Amino acid sequence: MTIIQFPEEMKWGTATASYQIEGAANIDGRGQSIWDAFSKTPGKIVNGDNGDIACDSYHRFEEDIKIMKDLGITTYRFSIAWPRVIPQGVGDVNQEGLDFYHRMVDCLLENEIEPMCTLYHWDLPQALQDKGGWDNRETIDAFVEYAELMFKQFEGKIKYWITFNEPWCASFLSNYIGVHAPGFQDLQLATNVAHHILVAHGKTVKKYRGLNSKEGQIGYAPNVEWNEPFSNRQEDIDACRRASGWFIEWFMDPVFKGEYPSFMTEWFKEKEGVTVPVLEGDMELISQPIDFLGINYYTGSVSKHTDGGLLHHEQVDQGYQKTDIGWNVFPEGFYKVLVYIKDRYGNVPIYITENGSCYNDEPVNGVVKDEGRITYLRQHLTALRRAMHSGVNIKGYMTWSLLDNFEWAEGYSMRFGIVFVNYRTLERIKKDSFYWYKQTVQNNFFEI
Ligand SMILES: CCOCCOc1ccc(-c2cn(C[C@@H]3NC[C@@H](O)[C@H]3O)nn2)cc1
């Protein structure tokens, strides 16, 4: 038996997001987001699901925090819904929305759970989308004003801020691939969106520094995956480099190097005639130093060159175990991508802000035996510990997710929670993985 022991100072937590768990979408002054509109568009979401009720955490957050207290975690990553606090995205503030987040944050602090707050987890106010959304540079300043209001409102309460969650999803998945809100399929539009989100990130970090927050920290949370070349043929190696360049370097090089990866911008220009709308001063803003990097990792793949497609790249099935959403279980990729990030960007403090798996096990006599999720957690925490032994500066781990919730285009058909949610009764049922994770958090080690 081998013990996987974590350092004393390791922070353990869970992660959620506003549109995925809150519900209460049309009460107490909340404005509409692009996800309210997208989820009400026929054909976009499995089973026509939407976030109107979700897990009803707007009303049940005390119960959720009680569950977190039982879990023994010390950090809870959640997001604020911009349209709940500023319904039109700019202008009037919704006091009922602010009051909700104060109640929730106060309850976390009373239970000695550190709030880690994501300012943008994809729920852009629809009123701003109606004016061009992130394609319109004015949205950048609207975001900075929203962020400043949150910094001032929660000064002394929230000490860990994340500007953007998964900018790749918020830009390319949403405006080029089109399976997320607002659902466009235009690479130049998506490239504009990606750039303006990065500028908004940098301006927000600069605004935060200007507020002289005493002990607060600010970062952001890109999603990464690992692409292993199918062979040592240069064309396969190059194809994987482009996949990594789109998923990782595109959103990390500007922040840590002050420039886009040129091999990627040249590829976009030559193959697609697409350019990044960089204005004077943008790259200096984007590369404002951050205090920590959030990393969201789920999966990876073996991939190779193919003719056609955006990157001339395709995955090659290698018979890996897959989760119920069809993603490879690829813990080796977790180790490799973390070491790659350390080697390329230096040893910035890293929080794993999302890592988890989709297994749709249902309760039997009140018990949810989600062995697949426990195996996934074991394997990925083992890979994480190995990365730490290799010098990666990991500060904490938040598993995705505390609760089963609205999994975007998959609706409620895909379950990522360590707590089962009955969407008819909203009853919460702790899964076997909850108890495994609780033991690991309590002991700060587990056995493999
Ligand atoms: C037709 C091509 O279709 C491609 C689909 O491509 C993707 C890529 C990535 C994702 C994805 C989903 N998640 C989990 C979320 N992370 C944030 C949190 O809200 C979780 O719910 N991470 N990545 C989905 C779809």
| Assigned CATH superfamily | Glycosidases
SSE pattern, N- to C-terminal: EEHHHEHHEHHEHHEEHHHEEHEHEEEHE
Helix content: 40-55%
Strand arrangement, largest sheet?
Answer: 2-3-4-5-6-8-10-11
Which stretches of 5+ consecutive residues score pLDDT under 50?
Answer: none
Rg over C-alpha atoms, rounded to the nearest angstrom: 21 Å
Largest sheet: 8 strands, parallel, barrel
Provide the structure class. alpha/beta
What is the total tally of β strands? Answer: 14
Summed up, the helix count is 15
CATH-defined topology = TIM Barrel
Bound molecules: ligand JJW
Protein name: Beta-glucosidase
Keywords: Carbohydrate metabolism, Cellulose degradation, Glycosidase, Hydrolase, Polysaccharide degradation
Binding site for substrate: 20, 121, 165, 298, 400, 407-408
Enzyme class: hydrolase
